[in-house]
Design goal:
With 355 residues, the chain is of the alpha+beta class. It is built from ten helices and ten strands. A hairpin with a 4-residue loop joins strand 9 and strand 10.
């Protein structure tokens, strides 16, 4: 009986004994059961633990184990099972190439998951920024293309293709293309500078040289600005990054300086009261911070007072509303005290001479 079983197990089918086929099946079933009964439960516990923590790193690692680790373990089980069989040289070589391709696939997937996690962390630090999120999605597409291109080149190189000659040819062609597209590449790099350095973003009001307006769109090559006159200004990204620009949206407070003039006939005691009047008016205005008010100079036709205050925030309309409120209050207070504002006047003294 034992002899018959041994004879049966030693029976060769397609170059392998029945025993090797049975061993392959046992390894496959045992490996799959181990993954299902043990590994899956371990990963499940890790996921439950990661959900209770504040850190996002353990969530990322748990997701990586589930999305990459489990499929990779399944592949390892299949590989170990197949390695117990003997294949002809051609099929053995094909199997090795398939194994290499699968390993490269999982390596690329791990790298992309890590890069995607890094970009998500960057977005969390920037809070809610829809234009930035949209831009990062475009960058992620370029990253995927670059990583997969590198993986394919690596795989083809291991297959025996002379990739170095192809890469050298592409390198020479790439230099030629780069020289022909310097302006485009410069704008592209400027786009990345704008994206990550954040000198401005959509909605910000900026002044660049003689141009001013609100940012409406930041593209890979150009940025569109809606001017105060309503027309659309289209500037290249390199022009913006090479220029000195003023971003009023980032202004926490606006320093305001204004001057008023009163007539020379104003009594001294009233002149001394004017800085106090201005102080009282500004301190009562919401979002206005008084700094100083002084008798500044003797003008050609007026006694000049200079006032400095701060508007909390960078909105221009808000500044104009506050300045208007201050102006109305000044007119009202000066009228009560009969203090006259000066206006340009000229006095001519005529001397009569004998004829």
């Amino acid at each position: 009986m034992i002899t018959q079983i041994n004879n049966y197990l030693d029976f060769v089918i397609f170059g392998n004994t029945v025993f090797r086929y049975l061993l392959t099946v046992v390894i496959f079933i045992a490996g799959m059961l181990a993954i299902k009964l043990i590994i899956r439960r371990i990963i499940k516990q890790i996921k439950l633990f990661s959900e209770k923590t504040v850190s996002t790193l353990d969530d990322f690692l748990a997701g990586l184990l589930e999305n990459v680790g489990l499929p990779l373990l399944n592949f390892v089980v299949v590989y170990l099972a197949l390695k117990s069989l003997v294949f002809p040289e051609f099929y053995e070589k094909a199997l090795n190439y398939c194994i290499l391709a699968i390993l490269i696939y999982f390596a690329v997937k791990t790298i992309l998951e890590a890069i995607n996690y890094g970009l998500k962390l960057y977005l969390l630090k920037k809070e809610s920024d829809a234009p930035l999120e949209k831009s990062l999605q475009g960058i992620m597409l370029l990253v995927k293309l670059a990583v997969w291109a590198g993986a394919i080149i690596f795989f083809l190189d291991n297959l025996g293709f002379k990739i170095s000659a192809v890469i050298a040819g592409l390198g020479i062609g790439g230099i030629a293309v780069a020289l022909a597209a310097q302006a485009i590449l410069k704008d592209l790099f400027s786009y990345f500078c704008i994206l990550f350095d954040h000198p401005f973003k959509v909605g910000d009001f900026i002044i660049v040289g003689d141009f001013m307006g609100a940012i409406e769109h930041i593209g890979i090559k150009t940025t569109r600005i809606r001017s105060l006159g309503g027309e659309m200004l289209i500037l290249s990204n390199s022009d913006l990054t090479d220029s000195r620009l003023r971003n009023y949206k980032l202004m926490d407070k606006r320093r305001v300086v204004f001057k008023i003039g009163v007539v020379y006939q104003t009594p001294l005691d009233q002149l001394r009261e004017i800085p106090k009047i201005i102080n009282n008016i500004i301190t009562k205005v919401k979002d206005a911070a008084y700094d100083r008010a002084h008798f500044f100079a003797f003008g050609d036709s007026s006694l000049v007072f200079e006032t400095v205050y701060y508007v909390i925030g960078g909105d221009y309309n808000k500044y104009m509303d506050i300045q208007q409120q201050i102006n109305f209050a000044l007119i009202e207070e000066f009228k009560k005290r009969k203090i006259e504002f000066a206006y340009p006047t000229q006095t001519l003294y005529l001397q009569k001479t004998g004829q």
